[in-house]
Amino acid sequence: MASYLPERSPLLGSRAPPRDSDVGQSEEEWKAHRVRRIVVGGVLTFAFILAVVISLLFVNQEGWPWEDEDPLTRARAMLNKAPVIDGHIDLPILTRFRYANNVSAFDLHGRMPGHVDIPRLREGKVGGFFWSVFVECKNDGRYFTQPSYRVRDTLEQIDVAHLMIDKYSDTFALTLTTDDIKSAMREHKIASMLGVEGAHQLGNSLGVLRQFYSLGARYMTLTHGCHNAFADSGGILTAPAPLHNGLSTLGRALIYEMNRLGMLVDLSHVSDDVMRQALALSQAPVIWSHSSARAVHNVSRNVPDDILVLLNDSASDSAHWRGKGNKTDGVVMVNFAPMFVADEGKATLETVADHIEHIGKVAGRDHVGLGSDFDGIGDVPEGLEDVSKYPQLVAELIKRGWTRQEVAGLSGGNLLRVFKGAEKVSEHMKRQGATPAMDLYSRRPDLPAEMPDWAGVSRLDL
Ligand SMILES: *[C@@H]1O[C@H](CO)[C@@H](O)[C@H](O)[C@H]1NC(C)=O
Ligand SMILES: *[C@@H]1O[C@H](CO)[C@@H](O)[C@H](O)[C@H]1NC(C)=O
Ligand SMILES: *[C@@H]1O[C@H](CO)[C@@H](O)[C@H](O)[C@H]1NC(C)=O
Ligand SMILES: *[C@@H]1O[C@H](CO)[C@@H](O)[C@H](O)[C@H]1NC(C)=O
What we know:
One of its GO terms (biological process) is proteolysis. Its cofactor is Zn(2+). Its EC number is 3.4.13.19. Residues 1-27 are annotated as: Disordered. It is a single chain. Strands 1, 2, 3, 4, 5, 6, 7, 8 and 9 form a 9-stranded parallel sheet that branches. The protein has a single domain, classed as TIM Barrel. It has 15 helices and 9 strands. Helix content is 40%, strand content 9%. The protein is of the alpha/beta class. Bound molecules: 2-acetamido-2-deoxy-beta-D-glucopyranose (4 copies).
């Protein structure tokens, strides 16, 4: 689709001023008035005919009159119609690390220290992004049973995201559905979705997943850089030895529950086996919220070709979300982190474009998107320094022959299609009577529990 926003009504010109009364007009004034009307009418008719001719000349071809303009001007025009929806931005963790969660300590209308603030989001034609709510994974103990503050810290991350969206409600709108995203963008707001960056943030509990959903989380990455009770991580540069050989039993229940809720399954960070198993198991389309192509730069964090091909030809239509050949639809949103893009010191806007082109070639251009990882990465590619630079990236793709439709898919249309597919699966499962997953982590000793001896408790503790 060329754009996912409805065309704005063309300005029809201001209303005609009230007519002067003819009383008091001289014959000459009246004649001059008629001549003016005829001339204006003639000019308008000519302009109309010219517009029709120009439309007929250009409308059925790929080209439009403005295609003579330079690629950056064209990129900006395209992104006005189909703004960027970035799959992964880390503003909440910057808020935690740098400001101890104090959202009064900085001004998003001014220049922020990282890669993201409101003026640069506007310059970059951003219409929406997933606010990553992230906490680290480590020191879990052998079976992930070491108590931790992760659920608290995730709630704090969700809290700061909500506080910022609320504080700058002239700019941001919390959006929970694809319809919300589109209406926010129609009002020129930046649609704001939450994404949880790892099932290690769940405290091993599907009940916690449901509560994160109810607080607005619309995707969850199955792992971060560590294995967890649900799935194996793919590591960062090289893959660690697997623990579950993919998904655990609890991980399979997790995918069912995410499908039922309508929460996107995010396969960034997971092992190749988890990617394959999740693609086969998930009833809903999946995403990679911030991952690049392994064939372009060989690190385990990137997606290999043998998985990218599984997405080819899978775009869902309105009736069959699994698409032709029962393939699971998905979108790989390209990560800009230099260490995933190219050898040290070599990451540039052009090499990021190489990843986009490669995924477009192997998976299809309707399966690629943008997931910058801004504010979550230390250094940045040359030419892609912050959120103001998406138009420059699109200009590079225009130079490489990307059409308006393909650009609109990359910038956000592909993500919206996939998200809509997940919403449909959720509605379908609920209509079919799918019940909430009640699976418990097998290494959890506290449930089910014996009823306490209330009489004894009150005697001892009150
Ligand atoms: C939060 O930041 C504001 C503005 O800098 C400051 O006035 C306030 O004291 C801070 N709050 C805390 C608890 O540090
Ligand atoms: C990519 O790296 C992995 C290990 O890090 C290695 O086994 C593999 O052969 C490499 N692939 C290519 C095409 O170089
Ligand atoms: C898709 O799956 C359904 C149900 O398993 C099967 O009946 C159908 O033949 C499959 N279609 C294709 C094209 O493989
Ligand atoms: C997808 O698969 C079809 C049929 O196998 C093939 O013709 C097409 O070239 C593939 N597309 C891409 C982008 O690889």
